[in-house]
Amino acid sequence: MSKLLENLNAEQLAAVTLPPQAALILAGAGSGKTRVLTTRIAWLLQTGQTSPASLLAVTFTNKAAKEMLLRLGAMLPINTRGMWIGTFHGLCNRMLRAHYREAGLPQTFQILDTSDQLAAIKRLLKAMNVDDEKFPPRELQHFINGNKEAGYRPPNVEAWDDYTRQRVGLYAEYDAQCQREGVCDFPELMLRCYELLERNEPIRRHYQARFRHILVDEFQDTNRLQYLWLKMLAAHGSETPAAVFAVGDDDQSIYGFRGAEVGNMRDFEGEFKVAAVIRLEQNYRSHGNILDAANAIIANNSKRLGKNLWTDQGSGEPIRVYQAASDLDEARWIVEEIQQLVRDGASRSDIALLYRSNAQSRVLEHQLFSSGVAYKVYGGLRFFERQEIKHALAYLRLLANPDDDTAFLRVVNFPTRGIGARSLEQLQDAARSFNTSLYATVPHLSGKPGVAIGGFVRMVEEMRHVTSELPLYEIVDHILDTSGLRAHYKADREGQERLENLDELVSAARYFMNEADQPVAEGEEALPGDPLSRFLSHASLEAGDHQAEAGQDAIQLMTVHAAKGLEFDAVFITGVEEGLFPHEQSMNDLASLEEERRLMYVAVTRARQRLYLTLAQSRMLHGQTRYAMKSRFFDEIPEALLKWLTPRVQAWSAPSRFGGGQNAAPPYQNESVLAASHRSPPQKSRDLDGLRIGQLVRHARFGEGVIVAAQGSGEDAKVQINFGADVGMKLLMLSMAKLEPV
Ligand code: ATP
Ligand code: MG
């Protein structure tokens, strides 16, 4: 048997070696779906059934795509560069670059990321004098993207009421603005590419004839448009459809909020006439206790397709739970624990810190940073999203495409050049009446505004002239100087880090030319587009991933969403609290709650050997201190699997604060007291009838809650209790409340 196939179990082997036909592998976390998919690619190539050029594979994140290329490179002595393996957006971008004319785009079209898109929508509303209270920009963005992801252009959106009709009108105006400016938002990349294939028969036939094998990882998270795109590319319904090989797990569907449809799996099975769904049941990733916890959690969901997972790895260690008094305490403890793991020989990149919401990372980052522990954040405030980098990229975008109004407005007066808001308004009015881009309108502008903004346009033209023959990284270096960006941040006393980031952008460009952008696998065409445009799409699509290339051994920080498909020896899931995980916006309806539970299932199943769940009783989030109870997910895990590292109820007392009369502020805002509390043995406060701050209590009417603050003493003593999302926070007279410790 081929060496490739040696380490597969019987079901995996059957999946890898299926004949070229539609196949669906439906299996739980860590059962080897991705491994099967990658091995199948290698097997198809090795046995000569297909060539690198006639195969297309879709993964969910850039990190996953890179990992797949890496693994493939290790299995076979082939050049994987230039193969069509990437994310949906990445592959669509590539196709659109190659056929920009047919797609109705300028050659150098630029990609708007989510925040650019929001800025463009706000600008549109302003230009059209639309009340942004009636049409909140974010909500409109959601509306537009939702429709694009379902495949609806403005004329296809069903609008039964006036309000929706107006929103559809704005959607159309927004699309017109993007077209004028030569930019595409993320969902537009998908829809444009789909329409290109739909409308242009030669191009469609070309790709249909070319891609004989299409492989899709994380199929459960495809949205409607992506499914239709796959169907089209696979020449579904023709005499010679491509063999589509899809792997997925309904229990890990976590993008429902963005329009993903688990129903696609059912449709796929029916429409592509999948002969037999293959199930994989052995989990090779996680120790038994971790797997048991995951199985127990997900069992609470309804409408599952149903799978069993088992492992022969033994139970392993219990799941460790740490309940901290505050987020700061949580972060401190985690960092101490991480340092211990590293001292014991763990490699940092095998340790992940996961959180439900991006905002949680700040405290964790701060703590890691001040303890000198190397870490890397995926997602969140990514390198290419930092302010100074976006400024620099805006100059580059103007070089590539002067009609990009978003880029124009970002830097026309940055660094300041004395161009006032009035001048810009005049320019925008003129551009609207001529129906041209801002840049193209400038020469027609008279008077003072014409002179001031004309200077900016001349500067950009000069940049274009001087850099036209330079290699990419020198272009970047040049614009940093001539734009005045470097000088601007040099003059800023706090600009040092930003200056370093700008230098890092030059390195990123150099790196991009050397490594990421080399052509190409055997029998492949060169990647389309000029280096600058390719680099700019890379910046929009692959935001952040560049830093990881440094190969530094660093702790991995990311949201649970970003962790999908990945695995680590040790995983910390932080903030496992009601309101945070499950998220408060998802607690009130069953469908969203089930999505939160799948998210928890994804989080738990990332761990190989060691899993930590941490929570804090108080937390600063979005500028407010919040108090929370432990997450309901704790109740779904069998108690025997958990090891509570602190007393379940955090013992705490702060006598100096009690009896103070007025002071209802929660004591653990005071950090020094907090630190002390965490180390000193629990004390009881007589004032509170033996109850303590942080204690879990039961109230006859309100149920279980956590005491978060106390005020007054004796007969006047009052306690503030958080009874969770349904009941909320209550201030109760201690003498009347009849609280029972739980
Ligand atoms: P997820 O649902 O989280 O994406 P998955 O089903 O894609 O998980 P993989 O990531 O492919 O699972 O595999 C999980 C781990 O198990 C990997 O480390 C993989 O190398 C390992 N593994 C898979 N199959 C085998 C096998 N037959 N023998 C040994 N190890 C295996
Ligand atoms: Mg996988």
From TrEMBL:
**Reactions listed under catalytic activity:** Couples ATP hydrolysis with the unwinding of duplex DNA by translocating in the 3'-5' direction; ATP + H2O = ADP + phosphate + H(+)
Q: Which InterPro entries match?
A: DExx_box_DNA_helicase_dom_sf, DNA_helicase_UvrD-like_C, DNA_helicase_UvrD/REP, P-loop_NTPase, UvrD-like_ATP-bd
EC no. given is 5.6.2.4
Q: Where is the UvrD-like helicase C-terminal domain?
A: 288-565
Which residues are listed as membrane-spanning? none
Q: Which organism is it from?
A: Uliginosibacterium flavum
Similarity remark = Belongs to the helicase family. UvrD subfamily.
Annotated ATP binding lies at 27-34
Ranges for domain UvrD-like helicase ATP-binding come to 6-287
What highest taxon heads this organism's lineage? Bacteria
**Stated name of the protein:** DNA 3'-5' helicase
Organismal lineage = Bacteria, Pseudomonadati, Pseudomonadota, Betaproteobacteria, Rhodocyclales
Which UniProt keywords are given for this protein, alphabetically ordered?
Answer: ATP-binding, DNA-binding, Helicase, Hydrolase, Isomerase, Nucleotide-binding
